[in-house]
From TrEMBL:
This is Cadherin 18. Residues 1-24 form the signal peptide. GO terms for molecular function: calcium ion binding. The gene is Cdh18. One of its GO terms (biological process) is homophilic cell adhesion via plasma membrane adhesion molecules. Gene3D superfamilies: Cadherins. Transmembrane segments: none annotated. Residues 79-159, 160-268, 269-383, 384-488, 488-553 form the Cadherin domain. PANTHER family: CADHERIN-18, CADHERIN-23. It is found in: Cell membrane. Its main location: membrane. The keyword Signal applies.
Length: 574
C-alpha cells in the first residue's frame, strides 16, 4: 500500500497481525507503511523526510484455550524506521507483557506463551515502543494497543438454579405454564453461536413440553390426574451453537408434582353395613365408626356425615372426626333388647369444599345403609319402683310385715330373683326380708319416740348370676300409738301472797306427751281424789287452752304470805 504525499501521514510502525478463528483458519494481516514520496514531472521521485514519527497499529487477536506445544503467534510490530539492520529495538509493556506476551525485540514478532481464557479476561491493554538500539532513544512515540482474546465454544450452558421443584394443579388445561428455566453460557454472545442456547426435553414426554427459545415448560396433555400419577421427573437440555451438531449442552431436572383439586366424590366401600351394639351401651357413648373413602387429599377430602333416614334416627347420632374423616356413631337414647332388637340407618357422606369447575364429575356425596343389631346383655334385676315408702306401728310384734318390694329379671331368661338386706347399719338390724318374696318384716320392737323413720337398702340378685346386683332405697315410717302418759312440763314450786283473793289464779300448770299429736293433747287436769284435799286451793281444767294444755290453780281463802309459804305443800296434780 503506497501512501501519497497528500495523505500527510507520518512515518509509522507497521503492525502485522495473526488471527486464528475458532474454525481453525489462519488469517494474516500486514500493513506496510513507507515514507511519503513526491513524484516529479521528469519521473524522478524525491523523498521528503519528516522529523516526527508515529505508530499505526491494528487490533490483535489471540485464540483462547491454545494448547499447542509452541507459543501462539499473535502478530508483528514494525516501524518504517526499521531498515532490517537490527538497529531498531521493539519494547512491549502493559498487561501480561513479559509473562503472557513476549516480543522479539529485533523482528517485532509477538507471541502468547500461555493458554488464555476469555471468560476470565476478554482483552489485554499493552504499549509498544521502538527505540534506537545504539542510543536507546525513542524512534516513535509510545502507543497503546489491545490484544483481544478470541472466543471459542468452550463453555457448556448451565442451569444455575436447578434442580427445580415445582407444582401444577391436576386437571389443568393443556398448555398451562409450569415453569420457565434459564441456562447461561459463559461464551461470547456477540461472536458466532457459541452462546446461543436452544432448549429441548429429554425426559417427561408426552406429559410436558418446553419452548426451545424461552425455556417455558408447559403441560402437554389434557386432564392429567393426580390420583393416577402424582410425580413427574422432567429432564430439560440446553444446547449452544443454536442446537447444531457439535454444540455443547447441559441439563437439569425439574421435579413436577400435581397438586390436588376436588375432582373425586366420597365413596363408601360397601352399600350395606352391620353394627353390633350391646343394650348396655351408655347414652352419649360412641358405639361405632363408618368411613367413606375420598381419593383427594387435604381439604378436598373433608366431608361431613349425617343420618338421612331410618327408624333409628332418634336413637343414634353421627358426628365427623376431622382428623380421621370417620363418622362417629353415638347413642342418644338407651337400648332395650327386649323391646327392639335392631335399627336401620341411612347414612350420607358429603364433601364440604366443592369446586364447581368439576361439578360435572359429581354428585360429591354418597350414601350407605347401616343396620344396628342390639345385643342382649344379662342385666341386673329391675325393681318395680325407683324407691319405696312403707309404714308400721310402733310396738308391733317382732315379725310384723312392713311391706314388700318386687324386682324382676328384665332379660328374656326371666331368672328368679333373691332379696337381702346387708344389715351394715344399725337401722337395718331392725328389719329382715324374705329372700324369695321380698317381704320386709320387723326383727325388733320399734319405738317411734326413739326413731320415727328408718332408711334401709334392699339388694336383689339373680339366681343364675349372683354378681348382677340391683339396689333400692326403702323408707319406713313408724306410726304412733298412745303408749306414753302425760307428764308435767317441770317440777313446780308455787308461791302465793297472803293478800290473794279467792278465785285468783296463782299459777298455771302445763303438761307434755311424748306421743304424736293425735295421741297426746288434749289433757284433762284434776286433783287426785285419793289424797287429802287442801281446802285453800282449787284446780281448774283450762279446756280452751289447747294446743298448749294447762290447768289453773286458784286460791280459796286468805293465807299467810311469808317464808313458810315459799314451798307450800300442794296436793299432787294428775
Amino acid at each position: 500500500m503506497r501512501i501519497t504525499s497528500t495523505s500527510c501521514i507520518c512515518p509509522v510502525l507497521v503492525c502485522l497481525c495473526f488471527v486464528q478463528r475458532c474454525y481453525g483458519t489462519a488469517h494474516h494481516s500486514s500493513i506496510k507503511v513507507t515514507r511519503n514520496q513526491t513524484k516529479h514531472t521528469e519521473g524522478e521521485t524525491e523523498v521528503h523526510h519528516r522529523p516526527k514519527r508515529g505508530w499505526v497499529w491494528n487490533q490483535f487477536f489471540v485464540l483462547e484455550e491454545h494448547m499447542g506445544p509452541d507459543p501462539q503467534y499473535v502478530g508483528k510490530l514494525h516501524s518504517n524506521s526499521d531498515k532490517g539492520d537490527g538497529s531498531v529495538k521493539y519494547i512491549l509493556t502493559g498487561e501480561g507483557a513479559g509473562t503472557i506476551f513476549i516480543i522479539d525485540d529485533t523482528t517485532g514478532d509477538i507471541h502468547s506463551t500461555k493458554s488464555l481464557d476469555r471468560e476470565q479476561k476478554t482483552h489485554y491493554v499493552l504499549h509498544a515502543q521502538a527505540i534506537d538500539r545504539r542510543t536507546n532513544k525513542p524512534l516513535e512515540p509510545e502507543s497503546e494497543f489491545i490484544i483481544k482474546v478470541q472466543d471459542i465454544n468452550d463453555n457448556a450452558p448451565k442451569f444455575t438454579d436447578g434442580p427445580y421443584i415445582v407444582t401444577v394443579p391436576e386437571m389443568s388445561d393443556m398448555g398451562t405454564s409450569v415453569l420457565q428455566v434459564t441456562a447461561t453460557d459463559a461464551d461470547d454472545p456477540t461472536y458466532g453461536n457459541s452462546a446461543r442456547v436452544v432448549y429441548s426435553i429429554l425426559q417427561g414426554q408426552p406429559y410436558f413440553s418446553v419452548d426451545p427459545k424461552t425455556g417455558v415448560i408447559r403441560t402437554a396433555l389434557h386432564n392429567m390426574d393426580r390420583e393416577a400419577r402424582e410425580h413427574y421427573s422432567v429432564v430439560i437440555q440446553a444446547k449452544d451453537m443454536a442446537g447444531q451438531v457439535g454444540g455443547l449442552s447441559g441439563s437439569t431436572t425439574v421435579n413436577i408434582t400435581l397438586t390436588d383439586v376436588n375432582d373425586n366424590p366420597p365413596r363408601f366401600p360397601q352399600k350395606h353395613y352391620q353394627l353390633y351394639v350391646p343394650e348396655s351401651a351408655q347414652v352419649g357413648s360412641a358405639v361405632g365408626k363408618i368411613k367413606a373413602n375420598d381419593a383427594d387429599t387435604g381439604s378436598n377430602a373433608d366431608m361431613t356425615y349425617s343420618i338421612t333416614n331410618g327408624d333409628g334416627i332418634g336413637v343414634f347420632s353421627i358426628s365427623t372426626d376431622k382428623d380421621t374423616r370417620e363418622g362417629i356413631l353415638s347413642l342418644k337414647k338407651p337400648l332395650n333388647y327386649e323391646k327392639k332388637k335392631s335399627y336401620t340407618l341411612n347414612i350420607e357422606g358429603a364433601n364440604t369444599h366443592l369446586d364447581f369447575r368439576f361439578s360435572h364429575l359429581g354428585p360429591f356425596k354418597d350414601a350407605t345403609m347401616l343396620k344396628v343389631i342390639v345385643g342382649d346383655v344379662d342385666e341386673p334385676p329391675l325393681f318395680s319402683m325407683p324407691s319405696y315408702v312403707m309404714e308400721v306401728y310402733e310396738n308391733a310384734k317382732i315379725g310384723t310385715i312392713v311391706g314388700t318390694v318386687l324386682a324382676q329379671d328384665p332379660d328374656s331368661a326371666n331368672s328368679l330373683v333373691r332379696y337381702f338386706i346387708n344389715h351394715s347399719t344399725e337401722e337395718e338390724r331392725f328389719f329382715n326380708i324374705d329372700a324369695n318374696t321380698g317381704t320386709i318384716k320387723t326383727s325388733k320392737v320399734l319405738d317411734r319416740e326413739e326413731t320415727p323413720w328408718y332408711n334401709i337398702t334392699v339388694t336383689a340378685s339373680e339366681n343364675d348370676n349372683p354378681d348382677l346386683l340391683s339396689h333400692v332405697s326403702v323408707g319406713i315410717r313408724v306410726l304412733d300409738v298412745n303408749d306414753n302418759p302425760p307428764e308435767l312440763a317441770r317440777e313446780y314450786d308455787i308461791v302465793v301472797c297472803e293478800n290473794s283473793k279467792p278465785g285468783q289464779v296463782i299459777h298455771t300448770i302445763t303438761a307434755t306427751d311424748k306421743d304424736d299429736f293425735a295421741n297426746g293433747p288434749r289433757f284433762h287436769f284434776f286433783l287426785d281424789e285419793r289424797l287429802p284435799m287442801n281446802p285453800n286451793f282449787t284446780l281448774k281444767d283450762n279446756e280452751a287452752a289447747a294446743p298448749s294444755p294447762s290447768g289453773f290453780v286458784h286460791a280459796r281463802e286468805m293465807g299467810a304470805c311469808g317464808p313458810a309459804m315459799q314451798k307450800p305443800s300442794c296436793p299432787p296434780l294428775v
